[in-house]
Amino acid sequence: MATLGQTIKSLWSMVVGMKVTGIEFFKPKLTVHYPRKEVDNLGTYRGHCDLVAREDDPLTPKCIMCGICVDNCPSGCLSLTMHVVGEGKPRPAGGAGELMLAQEVILPGSIKKAPPTGKAERVLDSFRLNYNYCSLCGLCVQNCPVSSLAWSREAYLVGRSRQEFEFDLLARLRAKAASSQGVKAA
Amino acid sequence: MALEANYGMVGDFYTQNFTTTHTGDGDTLILNLGPQHPSTHGVLRVVVELDGEYVKKAEPVLGYIHRMHEKMGEVKTYLQYLPNMGRVDYLHALGWNWAYVGAVEKLMGIEVPERAEFIRVITCELNRISSHLLWWGAYLLDLGAFTPILYAFADRERIMDILQMVTGSRLTYCYYRFGGVSADIGEKFISDLRAFLAQFKARIPMFHELVTGNMILRGRCVDIGVLPVEMCRRYGATGPVLRGSGVAYDVRRFEPYSVYDQLDFDVPVGKAGDAMDRYDVRVAEMVQSVRIIEQALDKLPEGPFLNPDLPDRFIPEPGEVYYSVEGARGKIGVYIVSDGSPKPYRLKLRSPSFSNLSLFAELSQGTLLGDAISIMGSLDLVIPEIDR
Amino acid sequence: MTALLANPLVQLVIALLALLGFVGLNGLVLVWMERKVVGFIQRRPGPFEVGPHGLLQPLADALKLIGKQLVTPRGADRPLFWLAPILSVMPVPLCFLPIPFSPLLTGMELNVGVVLILAFSGLNVLALCLAGWGSNNKYSLLGAARAVSQSVAYEIPLLLTVLCIAFQSGSLNLNVIAGHQSGILHWNLWVQPLAFVMFFIAATAETNRAPFDLPEAESELTAGHHTEYSGMGFGLFMLAEYMYMIIICGMAAVLFMGGWDGPVAPGWWWMVIKIYAMLAAMMWFRWTFPRVRFDQLLNVCWKWLIPLGLANLLATALIMKLVG
Ligand code: SF4
Ligand code: SF4
User: Fold this and answer.
1) Does residue A140 line the site of ligand 1, with CB under 6 A?
2) Which residues, 6+ apart, have CB-to-CB distance to B364 below 8 Å?
3) Tens digit of pLDDT for each residue in A106-152?
4) Is A82 in the pocket of ligand 2 (CB under 6 A)?
């Protein structure tokens, strides 16, 4: 008799399961149909890093070319070249094997403090990100002493080759500035 | 030509080794489960010897997703190694994050602000729920039920939305920093989280109705893969696998780190040590994690989320340190030897899945093929964590 | 013209052609329906992009399957390997022939219709067996072994329940059986509820549908007997699976629910409604339950269904004897 009761109870469990899926059948769908609708929480999404322009000049990034981001990057995907005004050639900052830490700025792990002043004027020639290797760890953005890096909210990046993910961040910044100025002018 | 004659079934080193040492009398079938097989969840390979449907011998073959995480630790600075942790076990990334930053903090004597500790508890437990949810769905997928994983994903998706608010990513989080976390949690995070917890608690009974009580599922789990405590000890099993066998060992309780000693939670244990017990333990742990998060939210103090006086460089004194946390799969341990340089001299990761997998060979002996799959699922293996 | 139509041979040809069309169309509809049902159960929309609400998706899939390269694995037994999928679909039109959609809409009225269907659908096992054997793949072989023992086991309860109905109606002719049950209260369902449940369970197992889909249990055997099939080889197995589902549900409708009979306006549409309702139930099963283990599957059959079926048969026979 006990086994019979057990059996009936087990069989009932099947009915209960079917009830659950039956109810779910009629509930509204959860899918966000991508091309027609997009998710709305990209405001907090970490895309690749992007340069931030100075308040007074949308064409120039805030970057002081300290090289911290380049040195800290675990994947070695950032590279920048610059030259000191008066010196002729561009030269790469940071990288090259050993950890190179510029003395004048706050070091990794700390949050932003005031940028150094009174240094020789330097000009950023290029700032490149090889997004293929980026691990989106956030160390570059977090450790930039002048907040010159920020997350882009690019969640829908597609490309056909690796080269398409080697970004020239300086060019991106300028293009963005140009397009927003175009909008303003219009 | 020889290959042709054998229809390419000569096999590689492992299969050959397996065939030379196999137990059968020649009337058995040697089957490669994996490295691409629907129920090995990644690139685990198990060579099994089948006598009809019975598993006579099983041997896991590892290394298909070995990424040299330990070696990478030796060539990267302490800070640069951070993103690796999210990739060791991508399902409970924050557990690994924590084990590593905890180890470095212990090594260098870095203080963590109280608020940061609570944020860590909240996010880590949230991540544990999402990991268990995925396990729940994937296990049922192994047992042939397709729908539960989608229900689990509906909740997991919300957890990822919430975690994305602070971590910025959805899977391989790199959120903890030496001396705190990389971003503070805000009002929206807290309100969304509370809403989620309330909704999630209401959903658990549905999970039980759909799955836990189901007669077929019970037939597939009860008394399957009974794991004696003695065997757990021999293989170093931890986490829900050990607790399913009735040992209430939880790092959060027995070596309390962070603020876990201020929080009130139970350590669910099983009785028989079968797959059903491991299942029950994990489901109960989700409920406990909800409890922990609720308490932590109530107690969340004000203050900085990152230690404001961090050292300029993360270059520890020579020495060694071991730090362990309770991950979703068991005890995660990070052991670091420092020689006083900016990079660790040696870094060792203790991954719970590795120990849990090791016992599969013994546990699956003599079971049916279907049971072996059920046992493997109940161990909750994450292959990248095994191979590291 | 009418004389020509009266010729039974011509009728047969027309019926066969119509059935082929029916089979193809239903295959497409069922694939779409299954995917929609699972989508809705899992709270997603299912196929959506091709055609309105994804209606043309199965057509696109079919085209894709037809267009794909047919790969024969190395070491496979080529003739057997390719014979298997064909053998699996071939009996399908034959099995449809005796099913009465309405008294007029019957492919061929046979006085052994039930036996014909059971006999020809049994051929499917042979196909699975050949597929497993011919593929030179261990997973396929295991799948085939499972398929054979499962089909052999579950054919018995299926037959036992069918016999009950046959006893009651005194005929193996499906038209006669359906004709006996005019009026919803006279459906065999009410007289033989146990037989109906057993029939349905055995039918699910016979068609290898979850939770009894062990021959292709993908978490154990990747894809079981059709692991190695590509393109239309796989497509034919799929088609056959869906067709056997329709056949067996059609049989259930005739045996237990009065076929074309309905509360209002009896006609072939009732038959279609009943078949699709049962198919929906089968899909509902599939997307709700975990898969049983192989020995449990056989235990259910040998320890529950067959004894119960025998008892039921005995009771039916006794009652028929006493009452009749
Ligand atoms: S997010 Fe990390 S890996 Fe990517 S560029 Fe920044 S520092 Fe490098
Ligand atoms: S850390 Fe900031 S300021 Fe320094 S080089 Fe990088 S972007 Fe420029």
Assistant:
1) yes
2) B48, B55, B58, B225, B371, B372, B375, B376
3) 444 444 444 444 455 677 778 888 888 888 888 888 888 888 888 88
4) no
Is A44 domain-assigned? no
CB contact under 8 A, B53 and C142: yes
Domain residues for the domain of B9 are 2-61
Per-residue b/e over B69-91, b at no fewer than 16 CB within 10 Å? bbeebeebbbbbbbbbbbbbbeb
Residues 6+ positions from A43 with CB-CB distance below 8 Å = A153
Q: Which ligand is nearest to the CA of A152?
A: 1
* Assembly ipTM: 0.79
Q: How many CA atoms lie within 13 A of B68 on its CB side?
A: 5
Is B7 at the interface with chain C, CB within 8 A? Answer: yes
Give the position, in ligand 1's atom list, of the atom nearest the Cα of B83: 2
Cβ <8 Å between C222 and B37: yes
At residue C136, what are phi and psi to the nearest 5 degrees?
A: 55, 45
Please indicate whether, in this complex, the C-beta atoms of A29 and C40 are within 8 angstroms of each other.
Answer: yes
C-beta separation of C107 from C98 below 8 A: yes
B301: CATH: 1.10.645.10
Summarize chain B as % helix, strand, coil (round to 5).
50, 10, 35
Same domain, B129 and B182: yes
Write down the pTM of the prediction.
Answer: 0.85
A169 lines ligand 2 (CB under 6 A): no
CATH of the domain at A128: 3.30.70
Question: Does one domain contain both B43 and B84?
Answer: no
Q: Which two structure tokens, joined as six digits, stand for A66?
A: 């300290």
Considering only CB atoms, A18 lies closest to which of C42, C48, C284, namely: C284
Q: Could you give the number of structural domains in chain B?
A: 2
For B128-139, what is each residue's pLDDT tens digit?
999 999 999 888
For residue A108, is it within any domain?
yes
